[in-house]
Amino acid sequence: NGNLALFSISEDTSVGTHVYTLNGSDPEGEPVTFGMTFDKGSRDYFSVEPKSGNMTLIQTLDREVQDEIVAFVTITDGRNKDAASGSSIYRVQAIDRDLGSGGSVTYYLQSTPSTKFTIDGHSGVLRIRAGESLDYELSRTHFVTVVAKDGGGKYHGKYQVMTSTAIITINVLDTQDSPPVFVGTPYFGFVYEVSVPGSEIFTVFAKDGDQNNPNAMHYSILSGSDGFFIINSSSGCISLTSFPVQLKNELYELKVGPDGFSDYSVTTVTIRVVDLNNHPPTFYGENGQQNRFELTMYEHPPEGEILRGLKITVNDSDQGANAKFRLLLVGPSRVLRVVPQTVLNEAQVTIIVENSSAIDYEKYQFLTFKLLAVEIDTPERFSATADIVIDLLDTNDNVPKFSSEFYIARIPENSPGGSNVVSVTATDPDSGLWGEVKYSIYGSGADLFLIHPTSGIIYTQPWASLDAEVKSKYNFYVKAEDTEGKYSLAEVFVTVLDQNDHPPEFNQNFLERTMIIGAPVKIEAVDEDAEEPNNLIEYSIMKADPENIFDINTSTGEIKLKPYIRSMEIVQNITKQKDCRWSVVVQARDRGSPSFSTTAVVKIHITEAVSRPMAAFLMQSRDNPMKALGLTISIITVIVLVTVMISTIMYFRNTKSNRITPARRIIRRRPKEQRSWTFRPRFGQSDQSFGKFFIDDDSSDNHNTNNSSPRAKPPAPSAPVLPPPAPVHSRPSERLRSVPTVSGSMASRNTSRSSSWKTNGSGISSALVSELKMRIEQKINEANQGYYY
């Protein structure tokens, strides 16, 4: 008791100090003694007083050299008892390097229902559980899983307990605790008339119950020999000490046992004195000689079972080879077998089951065998026969079996409740109450059905209404069960047969359609019946106005014009109505029996298709949708290819146009003085020169002289031509009005442009001046741009 793993001691503790006291007890109340050992190579720091358990320090401690001491504590009860309850077997040890409670280790065993061991939670000592013991003959090896668990602690802010496991293999050693067992009993020996002293009669053999470490057997005759027989203590051979004529009894029963063991290790050897071969083999029962044996048993006994109800003994009163005979069992082959097959003088006959399935009450109510005993080595070949009759009792060894694994039934819809659906049959080969079968049904589809528990007839529920349009297939399971609950299953499939109970129906009784010449219009009726032919519809034209104009597809309901009507002109010739609206009475009739029909009036407006190639193509392709689909894919492919080609060309053009080539251009600034242009209109000229201006440039020579650039200047911009003035009849006395001139200067792009207008006189309207100013500024801008670029 106690946890020495939590014990700590200061390193300055003096040698000889009492530091701890071991405490323990024996479950059986025996006094205990204590001991302590250390690992090989380590120093012994403590000594333990065996009786009191006081631990004393015997070596100086130094924590810097060793901060932990591992010691093995033992406790014994002082008895030399192997594998007894509470005995210590092994000590496990788990080391946890943590300090504090995290380094405290406790032990426990993973529980198993048949464990015979327990472990001390603190010391790790593995013991045999109280009340349990180990037996080599029952189990030679045990496996025990030990779990070591620390005291727990926080790790990364979370409390956790860590464990480790180990598997201990315990090998049980055999001890001399099992008595010897004689092999081949019962023993029978014989003394023949021709035997002499020293003749071997019989040899007994016993083996030690402790097979791992057996003791040598020494035999002795305890009683019954009357001085006529002796036994070899080593071999177990029984020999005759006198001549047969000196034997007083015909039968001797010797008590033979191994030396040094109790009475339950003793066996009996029966020795019979044999005379001449004048007796045949004979069968004996409990009441003496018997040649008929009867037995009542249940069918299907386990294979290898002995028929203990047959107590048969066979005996031949002769001696020696005259009494050796063979046993044979004649009957259904490989059902029973007889043991032994060869007998000397006398033997207990054992009948063993060899084939359990053949012992079947449903096949045979009784079995009959002949048991023969025939001498082997005698000229006479005497024999004996006994009848063995086995009456079988029935057991519930069969489950009810259906005549079929599944049943298929058909029932018309709208059948009244309680209608017969199908009859199922199951039989149980067992007899009596075990052969009675009760039926039941279950499953998701069994709600509308019930079954008679004894006849197996399946009906519809009284309230059930079967409708093929709602649900036409049902399946469920039928169960056949005997009185003990053994059962089998079969599956039932019920099909609700459709009846023609729904007429065809159009969406409306009056329909309107627009028909393009050359294309049909379609009408459709719906029949709610579940199956064909009840829901197959045939269409026909009952009446048309005008007549003999339309045809109808009896299967699809498509209405189209007669083939000769190909244009609106033909339609106009048929009818005088301008709107071309014709009426057709269409009948839809199902194919059921009896057949139902319904009619609808179809108002058809005749029109001619617009001449559109694509629409015409789609109309022609309505019966061949793959053709229209192929054309659509082709058009999309061409569009994609053209788009890719255009994008590629644009890409290469943009790539070339974006290249920048170096260019050198010298631009001279104009002198500060500004050039001025004088615009003089040539009045009085023809209409061709109307609106033109003439420039008077006084400084043109200077400009030409001063221009030393190798590149010539661009020509000066031409002034716009002024519009002709309004016609004025001048008088000689009036003074001529001067034409206003415009002066301008040319500079770089970023320089501001200015223009001044000087007007003389007030004869020209302000609107003309504004327009002229605007046009001149436009021309100057264009000229400036051409000059710099």
Automatic annotation (TrEMBL):
Subcellular location: Membrane
Listed Pfam families: Cadherin
GO biological process: anatomical structure morphogenesis; homophilic cell adhesion via plasma membrane adhesion molecules
InterPro entries in the cross-refs: Cadherin-like_dom, Cadherin-like_sf, Cadherin_CS
Molecular function as annotated in GO: calcium ion binding
Positions of transmembrane segments: 628-652
Cellular component terms per the entry's GO annotation: plasma membrane
UniProt keyword terms in alphabetical order: Calcium, Cell adhesion, Membrane, Receptor, Repeat, Signal, Transmembrane, Transmembrane helix
Domain Cadherin: 7-77, 81-182, 183-283, 289-402, 403-506, 498-617
Principal subcellular localization: membrane
Gene3D superfamilies for the chain: Cadherins
Comp. bias (Pro residues): 712-727
Region (Disordered): 671-763
SUPFAM superfamilies: Cadherin-like
Topology with respect to the bilayer: Single-pass membrane protein
Protein name as annotated: Photoreceptor cadherin
Species name: Cyprinus carpio
